[in-house]
Design goal:
By secondary structure, this protein is mostly helical. The protein is built from six helices and two strands. The chain has a two-stranded antiparallel ribbon. Helix 4 packs antiparallel against helix 5. The radius of gyration is 36 Å and the shape is elongated. Belongs to the Casparian strip membrane proteins (CASP) family.
Length: 214
């Protein structure tokens, strides 16, 4: 029996010698950390991580597409607002010409505000379409968020101020003239443009807040 126990004892000592190491001080130190790592199972990837990433990507793309749709509406409304003021200037009655919007400084200001909104929105649409194909090809995303937040509010102020100064002019324009009808349509379209631009400004502020602090 003693002869059988001796090789078993030697095998146990051999296994302990493999599982331990000798420090410079000469004391054996067991690989407790290694055994703990071996005992712990490998972490499995959570399926919620993929869902969160996909949700963030889908929310970002939905905001981007909604912004493009709103910009397209601003483009149409501002174009109609400027066109209805410029078109009656070329129309004439049988005996006397129709008054032009250039005779009223308030209507000139309304025309400039609508034209500015049209040009600015055309640039934003062009940039948004380019960002879909090549992200950041025209301007970086951070600079774009800051500029959009500031310029959206500026264009919105121009539109609402032009609407407020153009409304009293409607009563001063002669009734039955194309300019009076054009002024009514232009003022209505300018106010609708302001409402859509205000939503665009809210979306720009949302994107900027997400970039800065969220």
């Amino acid at each position: 029996m003693e002869q059988v126990e001796e090789p078993v004892k030697h095998e146990r000592e051999y296994v302990l010698a493999i599982g331990c190491r000798i420090t410079p001080s000469g004391s054996p130190v067991a690989f407790n950390s290694l055994t703990q790592l071996q005992q712990q199972p490998f972490p499995t990837p959570s399926p919620f991580s993929f869902s969160v990433a996909s949700t963030r990507w889908s929310s970002r793309s939905s905001v981007h597409h909604s912004n493009l749709l709103l910009r397209f509406l601003v483009l149409i409304f501002s174009f109609i607002s400027a066109l209805t003021l410029a078109t009656p200037a070329s129309t004439k009655k049988k005996h006397q010409p129709s008054p032009s919007f250039t005779e009223y400084p308030e209507l000139i200001y309304c025309f400039i505000a609508a034209s500015t909104a049209f040009l600015y929105t055309a640039f934003q649409l062009f940039k948004g379409i380019c960002d879909i194909a090549h992200r950041g090809i025209l301007i970086s995303e951070m600079a774009s968020d800051y500029l959009s937040f500031v310029l959206d509010q500026l264009v919105g102020y121009l539109l609402v101020s032009s609407t407020s100064v153009a409304m009293p002019i409607i009563g001063q324009v002669e009734r039955g003239t194309p300019l009076r009808k054009g002024t009514i349509v232009s003022t209505s379209m300018a106010f609708a443009t302001f409402l859509v631009m205000a939503i665009c400004a809210v979306l720009s502020g949302y994107k900027l807040c997400k970039r800065i602090g969220w």
